């Protein structure tokens, strides 16, 4: 009878040391075959907290504050091989953020920031997602803490996208599209999706979780559609990063309760100033719908007055309510070529919060005064109510500034010119201060009426764009200065100095291209901007600017760190886009809270507590910002590959934009898309030289960033968001076939045959004769041309004509074929196509012309494909039919036998004898250690000195003479 858990605990309590599984089996009277059952019971008891596992041994959970019978504290009775083992205190639960490694295991970082990280094995980490907020039960010992996942407190991603698979009955699984997730998600069978659909899964939260190793559970929240549909793929990318095109019901209910217009009471409340008589205007893109900023400028003494009004979103999004919780979870809006995934429902973002023309709207105002040199002299922040006089676009404003006649905007020309003058003064001030302006070109995807991408356009950065940028930068900096002067906690936009090591590496790269960048104790932003200015007009400008940008620190949100290196600003934050960025909304809320307190000071403890809360929100906002950037980049790459998939085989002019160990990236000059040219297609032996910052080849060629090239589109994979190109020319020099990857052959080095696989999705790209036939080309003469090429190779000596044997002629006669027909069917000795296996991707074999290079001293021994004739096969044997179809093989030429006999020193026909086992071959190289046999290698052998010459050794195995005929040699066993 198996022992109960209580009996196992009693056994552990009676023991004076921790027990292993085998000891427990013996003490419980169990058969060794019960070991698996016992381990499962012990694992469950450890999880419940009844016992403790230390390494591979178990002991009873100690009673906190346990006392002996005499009232003294009971000492630890646990002993190990290296002395007493300290008793672990009672089980502790810890809350923290889980970070999952790509290998499956994870670590839980405590929320407090103090203490040791807790290790989670793969079976435990698979039950949660990266960046989830979890509670774990801590075990192990200090320095090697290990945890058991108790529950998930908060998911960073509530919805996951994957492929729905039915298992039959009530069970189904979803295979996640995110490769970082471990295993499938178990879901109940549903009628909402078909097998193979891309679906949304809402993951379970809390303690109702599956056991270790059983993964995640959830329920299907809806079907996105079938894989391969572009709109479905775009949504899959967005959901994969935690963004959604839908809002929870409670969020929509709260948004529906917001009125469609500003009431009179709202306009007079909160000490708002009435700005409805001020001619404020909005300037946005052609397709913008959420207008969250309006501007106005007028002369003020010798300087300027600039008014920036921002939509008052906090009036409708109350702290802690469903709208606010969802906005914090998203933290940002995502702008895609064909849609927007907003942070707030459209009823707010495109409705009551949007500064529409000729409609009253609540706003937060930054009223600033600058002198003639654009230095901020005074600023005032206050809530207000406004009415925009016009909704302008960047193109309209630019046309007016260029002097063109725009009938419905000519009346605003004086305002446009004043805004232009203010923006130019502000830009000159920031330039003098040392702000960095990379001025990198941006590209946008132009969608067609059918919802598919048509082209990629370069987005121009016009003066009208710079005008709005400078106004927003000035407002953000003025608000940051207010918080800094008042000593109030807030969320800043922090950009640190670049890492010295990365900057040193970039300086070496720039010097390789002829640009010097000197710095000793760091480099100021002003010096860096001066370096960027000297790149203007050079072909390497864009590539070096991008590489420099990658070597810079990434700007993040922070409640404790202040300063912006790129803008050369002492303090900076985001204030001007609360509709699409949560940190901006947070700054508005903090301003209002300060006005409500009317300047009353708070305790230091309260300030520190609020700063800690703001830091958590800042970290989350930074993470969601990076996720949104990842979605935008991936969607643009997907649309770019979708746009180019019908242009496989076309040639383009391009520029080398980046280098890696496996090739170089090129950007097409007209299409503005980027793809990869693999090192193998550039030539043999190419390697990335990090000192020269170039791909270097044995023949002296170098591929560097900024070089012009001509490429052919070889393959496109929208599923992987990748494009591969083949090089045709680099800097005007053709990339010949001889520069392709080579392998040794009979007559020197020749190009390596390529196996090219058809793309599995988004259409199969045909190549070779099939592609030419599909384009309507005549391929009827290709077979005769191939036969003529074969004959020419034979005449030139690149292919050896093999004389058929008698067996070949008999086999041909049996099949009723001629010698010429059989010879034409014979596989080429140079290369053979691999056999096609049913169910595998179709492979195409490409053989390029042989490059014949005569070696200095070539061995003239003829080659052959001869092999001995097989033994006769009885009639009726199943093997006979198989062998009848085998390709014929020629007998060995007589010249080869003569050559072999001449080399061996024997007469033709004389039987070759094997070399004695102990003799060294003449052409073999001496080993670093003596491997000659000893007396231990032969049974009964006598001990001899290793220094004795090989010809005088007495034992049979190592003697210099071959064994006598008829004698047998029995080798002994060598000891290992």
UniProtKB/TrEMBL annotation:
Ranges in a coiled coil: none
Reactions that this protein is recorded to catalyse: Exonucleolytic cleavage in the 3'- to 5'-direction to yield nucleoside 5'-phosphates
Region described as Disordered: spans on this chain: 62-90, 736-976
GO MF term set: exoribonuclease II activity; RNA binding
Keywords of this entry: Cytoplasm, Exonuclease, Hydrolase, Nuclease, RNA-binding
UniProt xrefs under NCBIfam families: 3_prime_RNase, RNase_R
Protein name (database record): Ribonuclease R
Species annotation: Hyalangium minutum
